[in-house]
């Protein structure tokens, strides 16, 4: 059960991270191809610059580590509650 829980958690966070990264890339492509400017598009251009992708990589690593720790904590609490309810 524990292995399924962790695999499901990591698969879910992987899908969400891939969706966010893909969306940022797509918006950056649209911004650069159509030379769009304005508040939103300037932020997208900044994020898709060289400096921000390094930061995004660190954010992704931190997200995975945080979600993994949260997943362990939730699983242990659930197991403890299940053991209490069965006694």
UniProtKB/TrEMBL annotation:
Keywords: Membrane, Nickel, Transmembrane, Transmembrane helix, Transport. It is a multi-pass membrane protein. The keyword Cell wall biogenesis/degradation does not apply. It comes from the Archaea. It is found in: Cell membrane; Endomembrane system. GO terms for cellular component: endomembrane system; plasma membrane. GO terms for molecular function: nickel cation transmembrane transporter activity. The chain crosses the membrane at residues 12-31, 51-75. Belongs to the NiCoT transporter (TC 2.A.52) family. This is Nickel/cobalt efflux system. It comes from Acidianus brierleyi. The lineage of its organism: Archaea, Thermoproteota, Thermoprotei, Sulfolobales, Sulfolobaceae.
């Amino acid at each position: 059960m524990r292995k399924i829980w962790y695999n499901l958690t990591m698969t879910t966070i992987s899908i969400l991270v891939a969706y966010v990264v893909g969306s940022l890339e797509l918006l950056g492509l649209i911004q650069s191809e159509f030379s769009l400017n304005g508040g939103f598009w300037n932020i997208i251009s900044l994020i898709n610059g060289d400096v921000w992708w390094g930061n995004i990589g660190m954010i992704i690593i931190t997200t995975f580590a945080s979600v993994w720790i949260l997943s362990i904590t939730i699983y242990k609490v659930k197991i403890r509650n299940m053991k209490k309810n069965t006694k």
